[in-house]
Hints:
heterodimer; A: alpha/beta; six-stranded mixed beta sheet; four-stranded antiparallel beta sheet; 11 helices; 10 strands; B: mainly alpha; 2 domains; flat; ATP binding (chain A); EcfA2 (chain A)
Amino acid sequence: MDIKLQQVSYAYSMGTPFEKYALFDVDLTIPHGTYQAIIGHTGSGKSTILQHFNGLLKPSKGQVHIGDRLIVAGKKAKELKPIRQKVGIVFQFPEHQLFEETVLKDIMFGPMNFGVSAEVAQKRARDLIKLVGLSEETLDKSPFDLSGGQMRRVAIAGVLAMEPEVIVLDEPTAGLDPRGQREIMDMFYSLHKERQLTTILVTHSMEDAARYADNIAIMHEGKCVLSGTPREIFADSKTLEQYRLEPPHIVRFQAKIERLMNQPLSRICLTEEELADEVARALREGRDKQ
Amino acid sequence: MMEKMIFGRYIPGDSFVHKLDPRSKLVFVFAFIIVVFLANNVMTYAFLIVFTLLVIFMSRIRLYFLLNGLKPIIFLLVFTFLIHIFFTREGDILFELGFFKIYEEGLRQGVFISIRFLVLVLMTSILTLTTSPISITDGIEVLLNPLKKLKLPVHELALMMSIALRFIPTLMDETDKIMKAQMARGSDLSAGPMKERIKAVVPLLVPLFVSAFKRAEDLATAMEVRGYRGGEGRTRYRQLEWHWQDTISLILLVAMTILLVLYRS
């Protein structure tokens, strides 16, 4: 399912003295199956843009294609429910959405809203609770007895239980410990690969974007200012600086190594493993030449 | 959804009304609420309308915006008007259709009461639109100060009020966020039969209460950590200042009252 934003602008409190534009003429195409990262500072409009992906917000100007559905500014959009089933959003601090008496019921809430039978929903909950790294006994507990990190995992399971084709993640690991962050991001990535999902990651972590994304879009003051593959984006650290962003640690580390070795490596590396391989190769080549 | 509500919202500005001391504005509005009841004929109601328009003009709030914000109370306005039209049976009959009759007095009362209602709502809206919630509570605290002698916990009341006001926008944001999260999970708040809709409120209210209690606890801890121990010996950062404009506005109100007393029948 492709998602396409064309000339989308959005203003909060339209027509009152509080009117404030948060998005200006944003064009963004996310083809089916891509892992798209959207990066920007707080207030850059990234949270506003993500609410357009399942019709929670309607554009003030422009249009949004979600699969074969078209949402146009100024027109009433009916029956958004099918879209919401296909596009699952994990909001920032999703643990705030938990409300049921038991974890099981909470995970079943989403799918049952979309007409999935109780048995199927229950089966999904049992599978998912393990996938997000919790034990099956957790299902019978009250979500409010869990720790913050566990609540986060339950909430994520609640969205995954809808079996969406597109998953939108808004800072899904904010406030978790480093290990938990890595676990959750890796889980989303393997889901993305296994089920051929479209994943949209809204973040300010350059590291996550570099590690997982096929494509990165950079938001700045409500505009989409840059778009490209991670290598393209991080190659140009000058432009990034202009938007008060820094390339990921690993790219900066690579620049230091290149200075030490007095020679550039053949490509921009996005992970520690890649950089290690690349340095090893450069050293080997250097030795062969001698 | 709540974006259109203007009642209780503050629009920063630097008009004559904005710059008045909150104490004078509070006294003004409370006195006005009483004064409104003096009007009882065409002339005095005309005074009220002109006076209100004058205040609106001086507050520099766009009339269109103000009227737009009145939409939620239109129903109440029409309702009171109709009650008076239908149930007052005095004076000449103006219109008759079977057993349904409209009397002159009924029409008069209906119009007058509606104007009274409208003028009151407009005035109080202007108060909240031109005064930040913080200044309002400051003003109230100072005005209530004499009641301390009666052992009324004035400072605590003012603090409670300012905390409540402070958290209205926060809670609204929170509601919006949770609503969106549940909508994204397929809960439908705006469609379906009544029973379903009431059920759909539970996923909204539970998280809202949980976070409100958590917030209250955090706030209490934060205040305690910073050594808060009530109003005793507390100095203020924001000092209220009484200017000549405040005196003038109260004089205007007195003049208005005298006019009403003279011209009422």
